Amino acid sequence: MPAPRFDQLHRQPGPWFVALGGAGMFGANFYLYGSGGEWIAVDCGFALNPTPSGRNSVSVPSLAALERHDIKLSALLITHGHEDHIGAIPHLWRALDCPIYASPFAAQLIRTKLDPGLTWPRLQEIRPLEPIGIGAFQAEWIPVTHSIPESHAIVLEVAGKRLYHSGDWKLDNHPVVGELTAQARLQQLGRAGVDVIIGDSTNASVPGASRSEAAVQNGLQDAIRPCRQRVIVTCFASNLARLHSLADIAFDCGRYAALLGRSLTHMHSIGRAQGYLPGRPGFIGPWELGHLPREQQLWVCTGSQGEPGAALGRLAAGSHPQLSLEAGDTVIFSSRLIPGNEVALERIKQGLKEQGVELIDDDMQPDVHASGHPPQDDLRQLYGWLKARHLLPVHGERYHQQAHMALGRELGLGGLVPANGDLIDLSGHPAKVAELPHGLVDIDQR
């Protein structure tokens, strides 16, 4: 594939699309849109890469394409606050040197990452469903349901085209915390006409519809209520709905709950400050919970992906300073295994079993977790609303993208499967026209 021409990147209206992370992989989401020499980016996340030690190395998208082809970003637009969508900002933002547009919740998560002693570009808080003009682009954030509050799709209007960047999403009429998907606005967009969907492929190979967070709350309560000793639940720290549910479950089951892990306590404090988590029932301090009888203890901890330095890994190794497990305790994995973490997680589970701890995961009881990404019935529903012409499947490994594209073709969508670095012309039927440099940079080497 040839290198891009100067006029493609700096003169022709396009519009143009290139993924510099997030296509053919999980993590490091970083997507560029251009028209007439103006460029914006959507999301700027990091990737976690497993190592033989079980620890994850962290990498961020390379900016070689921007540097080599003199691409200056006018703005960075954020769909939501997960690390694979915002985690690279502290490492790349000073080089990007452009305003950031994000929801209030995502903006607060970003602020907590930035060195207060440095000068940073402007952080602009958006309002959903209120379009913003950014040079040649008009951008509108559309509320969608996901596993973190204030998740959005972003609709871009540029060069006579309407592009729908889905972000991460699912359909859930009972999300426990956060907004419902803005169905009426999506149907309105479909009547107006959508040219291209750039869409989440994570669960495109999975049949059926999404499980609701309300169903997970019931499932967790059913799993916890029969337990006679200490219960530990591990989940993603950013899933505020899960924290809300576990606080309620502890109260209903005659237990007290506490948080183990810095990322959990950090996210909980932001969720409280933003009004997404109530004060009661809530969480007590670990030191206080540790003095109560085992049958009254419910612990929520980090480490669901087998990270050895997280709370669950230290519990499995018997090295946590605030808690030691005993035979008869129960650990519930209210999470989904991210591909690449199998060996590390199995090591953690083995350490727990050797202590006589009972394990429950979503293979044993599927309703203790719900994915935040759309399976096939959700995709069919959304695409029926949007009535788009073309699809670019992103956010997933090649297998997930291909499954997504196959489903799209069944629904009458044209399109193609992009790889990182592919410059795609969106002025007509999406077509790969050139390749830009791409890759990941280990942040420890920066």
Automatic annotation (TrEMBL):
Source domain of life: Bacteria
Keywords: Exonuclease, Hydrolase, Metal-binding, Nuclease, RNA-binding, Zinc
Organism placement in taxonomy: Bacteria, Pseudomonadati, Pseudomonadota, Gammaproteobacteria, Pseudomonadales
GO molecular-function terms, A-Z: exonuclease activity; metal ion binding; RNA binding
Membrane-spanning ranges: none
RNA-binding listed as a keyword: yes
Stored SUPFAM superfamilies: Metallo-hydrolase/oxidoreductase (SSF56281)
Key word Nuclease present: yes
Stretches assigned to the Metallo-beta-lactamase domain: 27-220
Protein name per UniProt: MBL fold metallo-hydrolase
InterPro entries (alphabetical): Metallo-B-lactamas (IPR001279), RibonucZ/Hydroxyglut_hydro (IPR036866), RMMBL (IPR011108), RNase_J_2 (IPR042173), RNase_J_b_CASP (IPR055132)
PANTHER family: RIBONUCLEASE J
Xref: CDD domains: RNaseJ_MBL-fold
